[in-house]
Amino acid sequence: MVDFAISTEDRMIQDTVRKFVDKELIPREREYIQRDIKGESGFLPLSELRQLQRLGKEAGIWGIDCPETYGGLNLSPFTQALINEELGRTFIKFRFGGTAPSVLYLVNDEQKKEYLLPYIAGERQGAFALSEPGGGSDARRPRTTAVKQGDEWVINGEKTWISLATDADFAVVFATTRAEDGTEGVSAFLVDRSLGWTATPIANMGFDGTSSLHFNNVRVPARYLIGEVNKAFNLAMLFIYRNRGYNLAPKNVGAATRLLAMALEHAENRTTFGKKLAERENIQFMITESEVELRAARLLAWHAAWQASEQQDFRYAACAAKYYAAQMSNRVVDRVMQIHGAMGFAKETGIERWYRDLRVERIYEGSDEINLAWMWKDLQSRRTEIGQM
Ligand SMILES: Cc1cc2nc3c(=O)[nH]c(=O)nc-3n(C[C@H](O)[C@H](O)[C@H](O)COP(=O)(O)OP(=O)(O)OC[C@H]3O[C@@H](n4cnc5c(N)ncnc54)[C@H](O)[C@@H]3O)c2cc1C
């Protein structure tokens, strides 16, 4: 039998995070809307992020994906999905402390001491640099190169749209390399900013700290190669599938939940032509249809997270969940704005902020088209059967 019940332990974690979001994050939204109106950054500065992370730690949430050896809770992907859905209920971009990008858990012991542990402690910031000006969707053969010279790798090239890079101390950089046997592939390096790369922030529709990174003969000691030469592309994809399946997909579900609650309340309070909006069938249908789509997206996200928790191949499920949830949240925010009329368009309600922020969900970590193309290949090769779950 299928069991949709969430375990008591997961319910407790979900409840703790929900209370944290309600108490610590949602009340800050007004202030961030005001900052945005004044033309200031609408994002949490690092100092405030760290302070909130300390509060999260006091509430018992720290290191959600981090092994216990490093002080984390090492929660299952499913539990992480529940947490991310709660975090998605606010546009304040917050992440609990004590975590690191998955690739950093896979580095060797020396590298862990230098990069993973300070990252977990919040002492160092890192970025994940895969995309390039010539290829975001197709990252299989980066134009950025790393050439071995003695005990060093010399990196040349440009990375772009790299999140959290503006203030990063180091970047995990993916570059094309040539192994001793002459074969080419993708390798990953831990590259300190002190080695000479530079970052140029990219002004955009609603994402903070995103930059282009420039590498001009940046010399990286050979000990900072991650894993083996030419074997890093799968590491990059592992990071991306995790993000698709149990980070971004549930966050979109959380966003839609909050937005629909706002729409329901507004429809019950706003009167036009002598009737509440909630009495109009088209408004009822907009909200109800959206709610059904939200449920569908949540089940897709849960399925991907459950497969990952069971250590099954969850890639198809992750693509499906990310694709559908991002489409869904964008449809929902559009309808919610429509239901609010001009007030949806005003900064004051926060809906226009959601409208801008959610748009990128259909572009990064595999665009809609890339997810569909990937799933199509899986279906056509019968690796995934139609409807197989
Ligand atoms: C806010 C933000 C943060 C980001 N953070 C990071 C980060 O931290 N690290 C990182 O490495 N990257 C990051 N990215 C980059 C992101 O992953 C890429 O933008 C994304 O993969 C799309 O690549 P592209 O922009 O080059 O578009 P392109 O690859 O040029 O694609 C353009 C359009 O064509 C479509 N398309 C492409 N190929 C096909 C095809 N075969 N069939 C059909 N349609 C196709 C795409 O879906 C898209 O609609 C970020 C991007 C944004 C916007």
Structure description:
By secondary structure, the protein is of the alpha+beta class. It folds into three domains: 8-107 and 113-120, Acyl-CoA dehydrogenase/oxidase, N-terminal domain (Butyryl-Coa Dehydrogenase, subunit A, domain 1, Orthogonal Bundle); 124-226, Butyryl-CoA Dehydrogenase, subunit A, domain 2 (Beta Barrel); 234-380, Butyryl-CoA Dehydrogenase, subunit A, domain 3. Helix content is 47%, strand content 15%. The chain has helices spanning 8-25, 29-37, 46-58, 77-87, 109-120, 233-269, 281-309, 315-340, 342-345, 351-359, 368-380, and strands spanning 126-129, 145-149, 152-162, 170-178, 184-192, 198-201, 211-221, 225-226, 271-272, 275-276. A four-stranded mixed sheet has the order 1-4-5-8. Strands 2-3-7-6 form a four-stranded antiparallel sheet, with no helix packed on it. A two-stranded antiparallel sheet has the order 9-10. A hairpin with a 2-residue loop joins β2 and β3 (152-162). α1 runs parallel beside α4 (77-87), α4 crosses α6 (233-269) and α7 (281-309) runs antiparallel to α8 (315-340). The mean pLDDT is 96. The chain binds flavin-adenine dinucleotide. Flavin-adenine dinucleotide binds next to β1, β3 and α11.
Task: Provide keyphrases for this structure.
10 strands; alpha+beta; four-stranded antiparallel β-sheet; Butyryl-CoA Dehydrogenase, subunit A, domain 3; 11 helices; 3 domains; Butyryl-CoA Dehydrogenase, subunit A, domain 2; Butyryl-Coa Dehydrogenase, subunit A, domain 1; 389 residues; binds flavin-adenine dinucleotide; four-stranded mixed β-sheet
